Amino acid sequence: MPKVYLPEMTFAEVEDIIERVRLAIIPTGSTEGHGPHLPLQVDAATATYMACRAAERLYPEALVTPPLAVGHSPQHLEFAGSLTLRVETQINWLKDVCASLMGYGIRRFAFVNGHGGNMAVNAQAARRITEELGVKVASFSYWETINREAIAAINEGRHYPGHADEFETSLILHIIPQHTRMDRVGEIETTYGLFGPGPEVPPGHQFLATTTFTQQGLRARLLCDVADESYTKASAEKGAQFAALAVQGVTDYLRDFIRNVPI
C-alpha cells in the first residue's frame, strides 16, 4: 500500500508526491470512556482508519494528518482517563494544521470525524477556516457516508452509530482487537430508580457514557448503549463489513470533493 499517513512518512517521501496532493484529510476523534470493554481511543482510531484507507484509494491526491485525538467531550469526564478540549482550542488546532499545510500548496481540507461531540465544533471551525484562510473545507462524520440500506442488512441493533454498541464494538474488534477487553463487558452497569421507581427506558433510546438525573429521580450510569444490549451482537466479522462500507462512503465523498469543488 502507498504511504499516505504523514506521521509515518519522511519529509523526502512527502516531497516526492506533494505537487500531486489535492487534499489533506484531518481525522478528528476523542479520548473518552467507551464502556469497560473498549479503549478510550475508539473515535480517533475509527476516524483515522477510515481516512487512511480512503486516502490509499485516492493516492496520490490525498494525505492524512495526525488525528485530533482529544475532542470536545465534557460530558465524559467522570470516566477515568477521559479528556476534553475547549471549543476555541479545538478550532485553533484545526486552523493551525490547515495553515501549516497551506505552505506546501494544499488548498482543500477535510475533517473526517469519528466523535458526535465534535460535529458542531468542526462545522464552526470549517466555516471560520474557510473565511479566514481562503481555502475549501469539508466537515463530516464518516458514518454519514454509509449506505443505510447496506448497513441495516448487517446491523442487528436498533440504530447506528451508537456509543460502544454493536457498531463501534465491531469496528474496534476489526481495527484494533488487541486493545479490547471483551472479558469485562459484563461490568456494564445500569442503575435505575435510586430515589424511587423511575421511568422505563424508551425503546431504541441511546444513552451516552454519562450520568444523568431526571425530574423523576432516575439515575442512569450507562457506559454504553444498553437499550437493546446491542454490544452483545458485535463481532470482528461485522466490523470488517462495517469498515468496508464506511471506507467506500468516505472515499466517494472525498473523490467528489476533489473533483467538483474548485479552489
Would you kindly provide a written description of the structure presented here, covering whatever features stand out?
- With 263 residues, this protein is an alpha/beta fold.
- It has a domain at 6-147 and 243-260: 3-Layer(aba) Sandwich (Rossmann fold), CATH 3.40.50.10310.
- 36% of the residues lie in helices and 11% in strands.
- It contains seven helices and six strands, in the order αβαβαβαβααββα.
- The protein has a four-stranded parallel beta sheet with strand order 2-1-3-4, sandwiched between helices.
- α2 (42-58) packs across α6 (166-175), α2 (42-58) crosses α7 (236-260) and α6 (166-175) crosses α7.
- Mean pLDDT is 86; it is low at 190-228.
Fraction of residues in H or I helices: 25-40%
Strand content: 5-15%
What is the CA-based Rg, rounded?
19 Å
Please state the average pLDDT score.
86
SSE ordering: HEHEHEHEHHEEH
Under the CATH scheme, the architecture of the domain at 6-147 and 243-260 is: 3-Layer(aba) Sandwich
> Which geometry do the CA atoms define?
globular
**What is the strand tally?**
6
User: Which class do the helix and strand fractions yield?
Assistant: alpha/beta
Count of helices? 7
Biggest beta-sheet profile: 4 strands, parallel
Instruction: Determine the CATH topology of the domain at 6-147 and 243-260.
Output: Rossmann fold
